[in-house]
Amino acid sequence: MARSVRLVPVLLVCCALAGTACGGGVHGTPGGSGIRDPYFPKAGNGGYDVTHYDLRLGYAPDAHRLTGTATLTARATEALSAFNLDLLGLEVGKVTVGGETARWNRAGQELTVRPREDLDEGETFRVTVSYSGVPEAVTDPDGSQEGWLRTTDGALTLGEPVGSMAWFPGNHHPSDKAAYDLTVTVPRGLRAVSNGELRSETTARGRTTFHWHTAEPMASYLATLAIGHYDISRSTAGNGLPVYTAVDPAEKEGSRAVLARLPEVLRWAERRFGPYPFSSTGAIVDRAADIGYALETQNRPVFPGAPDLTLLVHELVHQWYGDSVTPESWRDMWLNEGFATYAEWLWEEEHGGKTAQETFDALYDHGEKTYEDLWSFPPGKPPDAAHLSEAPVYQRGAMVLHKVRQAVGDEAFGDILRGWAAAHRHGNADTADFTAYVEQQAPGKDFDAIWEDWLYGEGKPERP
Length: 464
Ligand code: TRP
Ligand code: ZN
Hints:
The protein is of the alpha+beta class. The chain is 26% helix and 30% strand. It is built from 10 helices and 23 strands. It has helices spanning 10-18, 252-259, 262-273, 309-317, 333-349, 356-370, 391-408, 410-423, 431-441, 448-455, and strands spanning 29-30, 48-60, 65-76, 80-86, 91-97, 100-101, 103-107, 110-114, 124-133, 137-139, 145-151, 154-158, 178-187, 191-194, 197-204, 207-218, 225-228, 231-236, 242-247, 281-285, 302-303, 325-327, 427-429. The strands form 5 sheets. The chain has an 8-stranded mixed sheet with strand order 6-5-9-3-2-13-16-15, with no helix packed on it. Strands 10-11-12-17-14 form a 5-stranded antiparallel sheet, with no helix packed on it. It has a 4-stranded mixed sheet with strand order 1-4-8-7. The two termini are 40 Å apart. The structure holds tryptophan and zinc ion. Zinc ion binds next to helix 5.
């Protein structure tokens, strides 16, 4: 599902560089080292599209040592002589493509793989990377920690925006979504919890292996792995949807009441946003040093401690907006955070609190004081990667949605929220897709002023 941008036609390059006649078959060229994300130019890779990750991991918490074999099934979207994977730290042992040993080299986060034979455009191939080492935390451009995080009894991974390359090689950009099987072996007594559904759990020779399966497409930043001691609870929500929650025993008491409301929040969200997009749900509550934020990891959001109800609403609604409808690039972050924030406003409005209009008005009047600076940049155009998690993306992003609601009325707005989730279910979308979608849903209405002032405009928009 990745988009790749071809810069140079294959034939020209192979004739010019290889100096051979082109008649005897098309030669591949190297795939790109990034897919030119405006905020993370090295994230992801050009030339192929991963359909499945099979990750087999072992972790020894005492030595902090990870050993892994990652097998990616991918389709070449162009003829390739080489392609890149993103992997940060760790030591690579061996790489094979189609079962044959491949040459490889590394530079920073780029692992370049040269298969023995070029890959044809459209060819499906398997690349296997064996690796090991002590995985590390990654510091985001905004200063927060992600990647592989140690906990008192194990580890926790968080991957937004680029932390997942700290524990497995892949095409680490949200535009390439794939299915996952994650098989993790840990010392007996510990548990490993991840996305999707637990397919099996087997103990032998003092170690337990957990197999987690994620069938619906997942962006790699939403993959997670939590290793440690957890209080596990399994139940079902409406329609038999499996619920699996894993809670750090120290957070158990504090989490109980709010996690008990998960089915209620899901029921509400399904009414507002349409059918839940995945085959299971739940939560992970775990404490890692220096982590003060939650993340909408697919199926099972991670909370850094007992969540409050508003945070639970926020992360669950991300399952529709972010996890199922995933940004095409990191520029489109407001499509995640603006929607999840607006869901908080809707929840409050429908549960006896402030109306969304009151929340909007309070922000309009006091936004520059309440938050770092609501008017410092527009949600559709963050100035750089360090600003992706700030109020203009979250709250002002939500204000864009409220302006759409004001323009079309409550009923049409509800249809737009559900319709947008349905139109791009399990896919990717960008900001231009959203504005086009809204315009198409309300023919004859002019949204230009909303986009210009609220979505893309610098400074504080005129009072509505
Ligand atoms: N998406 C997370 C949330 O639920 C917050 C977050 C984590 C984030 N990492 C990020 C936001 C990186 C922007 C950039 O709100
Ligand atoms: Zn969020």
